[in-house]
């Protein structure tokens, strides 16, 4: 099984919103073969807590404008690692040092990366195609 087209579109919209707020190292991982509860993880880094909050707000606003509301939001109080659950897509926004420390991509290394538009990946060395 691969991620649904709706999940891919949602992930791209979330990644673009994060990119618009200068998130770095944006990746989208198709986890649909490994998990039954979601199709795609979008993971990105931020330089500081303020930027984490700005990215989270931008992602929520963009997806809300598409009629997609977050089911759950965790970690905003500390703003080191915020998880936004949109059902088929889960967005992780992490401080860069926390992302390096936890290395959650390593857990999903056998899952394919989704290709993100150049507007998201420009200047984003870890983004790429599957």
How would you describe this protein?
- With 130 residues, this protein is of the alpha+beta class.
- The chain has a single domain (5-117), classed as Beta Polymerase, domain 2.
- Helix content is 37%, strand content 22%.
- The protein contains five helices and five strands; from the N terminus they run αββαβββααα.
- It has helices at 5-20, 49-65, 96-102, 104-107, 118-121, and strands spanning 24-30, 40-46, 72-74, 81-85, 89-95.
- The chain has a five-stranded mixed sheet with strand order 1-2-5-4-3.
- A hairpin with a 6-residue loop joins strand 3 (72-74) and strand 4 (81-85).
- Helix 1 (5-20) packs across helix 2 (49-65).
- The longest helix has 17 residues, at 49-65.
- The protein is globular.
- Residues 125-130 have low confidence and may be disordered.
Output the keywords:
disordered C terminus, 5-stranded mixed sheet, Beta Polymerase, domain 2, alpha+beta, globular
Short description:
By secondary structure, this protein is α+β, with helices and mostly antiparallel strands. The chain has helices at about 5-20, 50-65, 95-100, 105, 120; strands spanning about 25-30, 40-45, 70-75, 80-85, 90-95.
């Amino acid at each position: 099984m691969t991620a649904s087209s709706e999940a891919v579109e949602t992930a791209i919209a979330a990644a673009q919103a994060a990119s618009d707020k200068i998130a770095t190292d944006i990746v989208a991982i198709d986890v649909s073969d490994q998990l039954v509860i979601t199709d795609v993880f979008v993971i990105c880094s931020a330089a500081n807590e303020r930027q984490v909050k700005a990215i989270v707000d931008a992602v929520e606003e963009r997806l809300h404008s598409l009629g997609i509301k977050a089911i759950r939001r965790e970690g905003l109080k500390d703003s080191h690692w915020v998880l936004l659950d949109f059902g088929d897509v889960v967005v992780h926004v992490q401080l860069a040092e926390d992302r390096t420390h936890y290395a959650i991509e390593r857990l999903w290394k056998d899952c394919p990366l989704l290709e993100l538009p150049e507007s998201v990946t420009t200047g984003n060395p870890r983004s790429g195609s599957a």
